[in-house]
Amino acid sequence: MTELRPLIRCREIGASDLEAVAELLTRGFAGRSRDHWMSGLKRQATRDVPEGYPRFGYMLDHEGAPVGVLLLLYCARDEDGEAAIRCNLSSWYVESAFRNYAPMLTKIAQRHKEVTYVNISPASWTWRIIEAQGFRPYCSGMFVSLPALSRPAGGMTVEIVSRHVRELGGLSAKETALLTRHAASGCLSILCRTADGHAFPFILQPMRIHRGRLSPPAMQLIYCRDIADYITCAGTIGRCLLLRGKISVVLDANQRVDDLVGFYTERRGRKYFKGPHCPRLGDLSDTELVIYGP
Predict the structure, then answer these.
(1) Could you give the domains of the chain?
(2) What is the DSSP code string of 145-186?
(3) Phi-psi label, residue 172: left if phi above 0, alpha if psi -120 to 50, beta otherwise
(4) What is the Cα–Cα distance from 110 to 34, expressed in whole angstroms?
(5) Which ranges of the chain would DSSP assign to H, the alpha helix?
């Protein structure tokens, strides 16, 4: 008698696969509910995706059922005036009986040489594996700032940007759309204005951090034009956040930020990239943090 080999193929995830993919991810990620995955997949189903790239990612198909999955979040970027494509590799899981087939997922997912791939939430035990795949770290850790302890800029105001705004003075149509899109996804989009009308856009998102027995209510910086802008506006932002019960803002960082009050750690926050464009610190827009939540 000949041994029957399982029929495994790697294929693009389609809309009809979402229910089964959510079930698989629920089994693979303890603490994440099926509703969590379905909500994120529904957001992926409606977001803009560059033409020619997969909407959801890839799955290992065993006789019609998913036994492995790698979600991909593609978006178009502007890199120093040049159009570019970025892909956030997210939520990789393969059932134990099929782990030998896992390289099929990573190989097909990273085949586009023109794309910059990022991994923004790698577990520490995967760092060596990721680096062996050609990824390089661009962010070593995170800086937990206490912005209310910074001096506010004189005459600066804060405007909360809602999802329904169509135009914002001082911002381009593209940047206005960025803030409103993220506000619709549950982020806090704000605009700091100086006394002379100069505008600084920011996107923040609630998160939980743990330091020993402490777990201060915090926000994560999802987007700013430059970390220097956050330093300039930190005091004003901090007072705005105090009214919302938040005392800290977490930034991507490679070292301590001397102009801010807070602390730097490399226990969390490492991020990797592979491709033609090194991501900058302070831009996590349109990533898994937004689509799937913290």
Answers:
(1) 8-140 (3.40.630.30), 142-266 (3.40.630)
(2) E-GGGSPPPTT-EEEEEPTT----TTS-HHHHHHHHHHHHTT
(3) beta
(4) 27
(5) 18-28, 34-46, 102-109, 127-132, 173-184, 227-242, 288-291
Cα gap 229→246, rounded to integer Å: 20
Rounded Cα distance between 187 and 163, Å, is 10
Burial of 253 (0-12, 13-18, 19+ CB in 10 A): buried
**Residue carrying structure tokens 């102009």:** 259
Question: 101 CB contacts (<8 Å, ≥6 apart)?
Answer: 8, 10, 60, 68, 94
- pLDDT tens for the chain, 294 residues long, are 344 456 889 999 999 999 999 999 999 998 899 999 999 999 999 999 999 999 999 999 998 899 999 999 999 988 777 889 999 999 999 999 999 888 888 889 999 999 999 999 998 888 998 999 999 999 999 999 999 999 998 899 999 999 998 888 889 999 999 999 999 999 999 999 998 889 999 999 998 766 556 667 899 999 999 999 999 999 999 999 999 999 999 999 999 999 999 999 999 999 999 999 999 999 999 999 999 987
CB 165 within 8 A of CB 176: yes
Q: Quick one: how far is CA 67 from the chain centroid?
A: 25
